[in-house]
Amino acid sequence: MATTDVVPRESAGGMGHKRIVNDMSIQVATVNGSGSQSSNTVLLRSIFQMGVPVSGKNMFPSNIAGLPTWYTIRANKNGYIGRKKEIDFLVAMNPETAQEDTLSLAPGASVLYDDPLKLDKLRDDLVFYSVPYDKIVAAVCPEAKLRKLVKNMVYVGVVANLLTIEMAEVEKAIRKQFAKKVKAANLNLAAAQAGFDYAKANLQKRGAFYIERMNATAGKIIIDGNSAAALGCMFAGCTVVTWYPITPSSSLVETMIEYMKEYRIGPDGKATFAIVQAEDELAAIGMVIGAGWAGARSMTATAGPGISLMSEFAGLAYYVEVPGVIWDIQRVGPSTGLPTRTSQGDILSTAFLSHGDTKNIMLFPCSVTECFTMAPEAFNLAEQFQTLVFVMSDLDLGMNNWMSDPFEYPTTPINRGKVLGKEDLDRLGGFARYKDVDGDGIGYRTLPGTIHPAAAYFARGSGHNEKAQYSERADDFENNMERLNRKFETARSFVPRPEITKGNNAKIGIIGFGTSHWGITESRDQLREEYAIETDYLRLRAYPFTREVHEFIEQHDRIYLVEQNRDAQMLTLLKLDLKPELTTRLRSIAHITGLPLDARSITDELTSMEGK
Amino acid sequence: MGTTTVEPGAAAPGSSGPKTNRIGLTVMDYKGGKTTLCAGCGHNAISERIVESMYEMGVQPEFLIKPSGIGCSSKTPAYFMNRSHSFNAVHGRMPSVATGALLANRRLVCIGVSGDGDTASIGIGQFVHLMRRNLPIIYIIEDNGVYGLTKGQFSATADLGSKLKSGVLNDLPPIDTCALAIQLGATLVGRSFSGDKRQLSAMLKAAIAHKGTVMLDVVSPCVTFNDHEGSTKSYKYVKEHEETLQDVSFVPHFEDIDVEYDPGSTVEVTMHDGSRLHLRKLEEDFDPTNKIRALTRLTEAHEKGEVLTGVFYVNPEAPSFIDMLNVVDQPLATLPDSMTRPGKEVLDAVMEELR
Q1: Domain B2-354 falls in which CATH fold?
Q2: Which residues in chain B belong to E strands, given as ranges?
Q3: Is residue B88 within 8 angstroms of chain A, CB to CB?
Q4: ipTM
């Protein structure tokens, strides 16, 4: 099966001899469209409510119903919430994949399966539990057509019993999940309880894995990155959203619609925003640019194929100097690729999206918190620099549930950038749209609707001079392009700075960004504990690269650049920025499976390159 | 609409000095730069009509935006109304840019200038979706059936059998942008001819008064690449084959004029702002409020080889896209932070739900 690799473990936790507490990866294999999402969320929340750090990752097909889907919950007392390569506890609900799923487990893992699947014949180095789901569900759910959905809640009860998750927490999670639907909550609770009771009466716990109450999640929230981004954009003062549905970005705008309808309606019942579903991504970005030109805080959300379609317009925005925010929730390309798998594969194409010498600002959120905080930062940068800002999230961050501290209310004021109003024009008498008045490469703009005879300028994608007049003159073109470059250089000092974590006198540096962060953090501990390798770590948060990035590379003998694409795109981008003698220090750890990057893969590759 | 805004301090109409319109501006305040198109190009005549009608309607120039696509037609916003913001965007995608701008500021008046290639070929996707939304925009196609800037290839509005200068015959049927616009939901649709001053002016003024999508296809001969014998978009051909549905006249709401008309022979349409559009019928059974009749008549025109002009369809009552979005009355672009950033209590409440 596709989601795990077999990794032999020296100390298989097996057969009841060992106790492994609050450190496991549970995988639930189901058929998509069977309602397992609710069950899995309940399981995740139950563990979370017991105070154990937890994350959930959905590996789903590009399909509505009938294909295999896997949901992996990782509970870890040390707070490692990136993907773990090995599966410790398999809940096999899908006959299609059950055999392969079971065969790919490492010795010592547990398997909970539907009785008719008879998986226990496959191997003798695993712990098997079988449950007659149909019998149990028939007893608690009289309505036959609901049984398929309720069946999945039975395994929640069984797992709770086997992993010592408290039923009171399961009940609380079910009540939260079904909120106002009391009848559905009761039915699901009965199913979970029936599973719990069955396990208690019939199954003997032999596996090594236990959940025990701790206190590491108090006050924390669970949210997915797209919802966090939606909230961030609402608090960023976004006023125009235009979009075209595409996995994995759709939920960003859909969640935003819900929040905006609730919290951004004026006292007269009218909206302080406009959200429009466009006919395609070209129209979506065209509208973003039109709105940005006319002064709105405008945005769209998309994924790789949408980014490709937006290419021509991106160059227009760069050259005409129009603000806008584009969320790229990256998925696997090229082409349609794997629409429901994660990657960091749009880095190079987005950095230079469009023809000619186009360069774009990018931000790299690694967490749900940064999805929230980078939203107002992106809008401020877009308006300050009068250009598009791409926020490079990914499917793993955008669509999966993450544990986080609650978000803090934004304290940075909304910055609308250099905009001249009527009074300014009265004072100045006029203005030249593309003149570098302040030496930072950023001109002053006016908005349509500014009542002043000198307010208007001619925005055009064709060659223009400082006054925005049509020009094919070589000097006008060159001066303008040099000024645009100056503006991009100015941006280096204003984009979010990298986050640097020091080891102990490390000679090795790791550079990463986005969701690779979670694997890297855990891998650094593995490197220290298992190989005595000390590393320093720089997490990139923006392009153009800031001064700190260059300094970090200068300070280390070897730099491992960790990313989730084939061609080492960020490394390539960084090379363009570095002094030639520094480029030889860069080594690539690139990961392209479409699954979130796990710590072990990084550790293995890094130690291998270090000759360990 | 910006048509009723009077700039404070402007010279009052009727005071001594140059002639001014109802908001105290002279026709010079509506002028653009010098045209760089070919002498005799139909597009220049259209620009002149736009200047006149905007001046006569008293549109505040700063409230007008003039987005355009790419091509000869799309260059023309540089040749009218310098006091208005322009956006010469990318080929065939002006509708989305215009839509965004109007979402940002609902008070703007928008005249989007496109050509037949920019609309019917590369831009047909955005065109059809614009027509569906009834966005308050005046969409003008300066239609010469040919690509001028790339030196004379056929566009998708070229008629079947029309001949290029090189002698090549067009063997594909034309897209009738008016028929498409009517079918898809535009609420004021007509065709005119760049050489017909009176009709085009009246239609442009009605367009300014209309609140919804106006689609005007203005046949505008290309003197350099498509004005020869065998072309169906030449001055000569249009003059010989033009069939006019109505005698179009327009009475603005601010002019207190009683116009006598015969209800039997003239259709009067009251526009959103109270202006009146008078359509004196030249074809007895044509009704510009009947979509089906309009589409039938357009199909007949193709079969007969007519260049049919006039107001094909008008519906001043349909809600505009901006109304349907139920946005606040102020421009979204300049809302104060207090209206666009919810308070801390909102974030606290959302965080509580997520615990």
Answers
A1: Rossmann fold (3.40.50)
A2: 64-68, 85-88, 109-115, 137-143, 146-147, 153-154, 188-193, 213-219, 242-244, 246-251, 266-270, 276-281, 307-314
A3: yes
A4: 0.95
